[in-house]
Amino acid sequence: MEERSLRITGTDKNFFGRLSTKLSAMLIPTKVGINSMLISMKRTSVMKAFENNSKEDNDQEEQEKKFENSYTAYLEALDKYVLDSIYKKVRNGSATEFEKNALSKYYEVTSLKENEYMEYKYRKQKYLLDLDYESIKTNGKEKVIKRYIPFYINKMDAIYKAILKNYSIKLANTSDLYDSSKEWIYNKIFYTLEDYIQNILSIKIKNDIDNKQELKEEFEKFENYAIGKLDSRDNIEKNKAVLKISRKLFTHSLPLVVAEQCYEKLLKDARSLVQDTKIATKRERVYSTLINLIEDYNVKLLSTKVYWDNPQKRESFKLFWDKYKVLTKQKDISPKELTKQKEILLIRRDLKCIEKATIDYSQITKYYKRKLVDYGAIREIQNKCKTLNGKFIKIRSNEVECLN
Known about the structure:
The protein is mostly helical. Among the domains are: 16-140, no CATH class; 308-404, no CATH class.
């Protein structure tokens, strides 16, 4: 009897479980329909509030309050859609790949809540807006998309600035030097900037929003790195392009002191790559990237720096900067000779920067000095001398060789 009752109980559970699953599957389309209708209403409301808030002749304080309230209600509707519809569709095995990926990203964002609340706060808004934007692009009318884009760009600009400002604050307790213990923050900054350029700046340029045509050339250079698999050198080049664009887009959210640390990280990566690359042709390509990076760092970033914590660094840079300006203003020098003299100046500058580094840069120092010898900028001193008895000796590590 005990065995039979257990069998019957198990059968009943399976029966009710299957019935519950079927009922859920039947109700999901209704839930999706209701949520979609609710989102559409909230979306229309927030776009209208945004447009009213953009008009200067209205009561700005009142319109801004209405916009924020409608924006909150809109996000809540999107969040409810994820929890009520997408989650249940994934659980019942009726979700599309897009919906599966959407739920996976949702969990990824919510995992930040406990330890990184500020990042969670902004990443979740970004996630929900991206989710609805993709839905509109797939299913919406051209008129709705065109109306939605200004609102979407406005909120995304604010969200990305907040995320980058949060990262900048995490680096605020350090100096302008690269801090290897915070490597993950630098990587997140590069990832966030790249994400913005790919997904937001591209829309601005396409729709000519905020007159971003001035960045079109830099954006086209960045796009070259979106094709194919990137090696370590390509990633450095890509991140250099990202930083260059960021100096025009995120001056306040990513202040100069943080951008300086990001450049230091790239310089560290490029120097290490030169040291680690064994094939001569590849090493030359990486070296070329390093020289261009040193020039960008000094000319396009440090030359704009007003306040220096370290007076010695300031004086060292001033000496370099004065020589660089004199060199670039010379009219009676060929382009090839100018490139050579600039390279010599940049090598000397970087040798000064790494002479007290905690990282072992002995190999890159030897490489730099070999370049200076090849260019005739320094002389190579032979490793031998004449003794009192008239013989030459040459020192080789721990042994002495006599030469007649």
